Amino acid sequence: QVQLVESGGGLVQAGGSLRLSCAASGRTFRRYVTGWFRQAPGKEREFVAAVDWSGRTTIYADSVKGRFTISSDNAKNTVSLQMNGLKPEETADYYCNVDVMVRDGLRLVRKVYWGKGTLVTVSS
Fold first, then answer.
1. By the 8 A CB rule, do 48 and 110 touch?
2. Which residues are within 8 A (CB) of 54 and not within 5 positions of it... i.e. 6 or more apart?
3. Are residues 4 and 118 in contact, defined by beta-carbon separation less than 8 angstroms?
4. CA-CA distance, 59 to 117, in Å (whole number)?
């Protein structure tokens, strides 16, 4: 179906920047939403940013607006997240996903694919 692999995580000082990438392989879709979530230890997974297939419609969590930028490259089957002004509290595992509607016989079923995550550590 779809395989997603994140990269770009690592250690960065507070106020620094990091760029995450997610490479997709397998089945392709005409319409989809792809984005990033993050999960800190002991916390719920939270939404960070998303972009639709056109690359023109984006949404961001309020906490990252103005600092993070999501972008996609359909030709390369990748989605990236540029993170600027990182804060220690944003230390987390970052996951990319693809959200699509899949035909199942006569039905359309929502399917969400997830990568395994990449760790971002922001030191103070």
1. no
2. none
3. no
4. 20
Entry field: residues in the chain: 124
- DSSP 8-state symbol, 85: S
- The residue ranges of DSSP E strands in the chain, in sequence order, are 2-7, 10-13, 18-26, 33-39, 46-52, 58-60, 68-73, 78-83, 92-104, 107-114, 118-123
AA identity, residue 36: W
Q: Hey, what amino acid is at 72?
A: S
Q: What is the pLDDT of residues 70-81, one digit of tens each?
A: 999 988 999 999
Q: Which two tokens stand for residue 91?
A: 């230390």
Q: Give residue-wise pLDDT tens across range 87-120.
A: 999 999 999 999 999 989 999 999 999 999 999 9
- Per the structure block, which two tokens stand in for 84? 């600027």
In this structure, the strands spanning 118-123 and 10-13 are: parallel
CA–CA distance, 112 with 69 (Å, rounded to integer): 22
